[in-house]
Amino acid sequence: MMLEPSIDKLQEKIESKYKLVILSSRRARNLTENKDLQIDKPKSKKYVGMALEEVTAGKLYIEE
User: Fold this and answer.
1) 3-class DSSP state for residue 57?
2) Is residue 28 within 8 Å of 47, Cβ to Cβ?
3) How many Cβ atoms are within 10 Å of 61's Cβ, its own excluded?
4) How many angstroms separate the CA atoms of 7 and 32, rounded?
5) Fewest C-beta in 10 Å: which of 20, 23, 24, 46?
6) Prior bond of 5 cis (ω within 30°)
7) What is the rounded CA–CA span in Å between residue 64 and residue 32?
């Protein structure tokens, strides 16, 4: 079973798995309240998956 987006693609954008988990969980919580998705036609039906797709698309990132 392949998960989309893959962890390799995600770690190209955000190196730390810990930061990736925190970012995606906060964004998923935000999506449940606002439904303001930054990508068109997400593959995932769950908010965490949608948040990870935003990371892959470069729409969601951490400012250092």
Assistant:
1) helix
2) yes
3) 11
4) 23
5) 46
6) yes
7) 26
- How many residues in the chain? 64
- Per-residue pLDDT of 33-62, as tens digits, reads 998 999 999 999 999 999 999 999 999 888
Is residue 33 domain-resident? Answer: yes
AA letter at 16? S
Instruction: Please give the pLDDT value at position 33.
Output: 95
21 falls within a domain: yes
Q: How many domains does the chain have?
A: 1
Residue 6 lies in a domain: no
21 residue type, one letter: V
C-alpha 35/C-alpha 29 separation (Å) is 10
Q: pTM for this one? A: 0.86
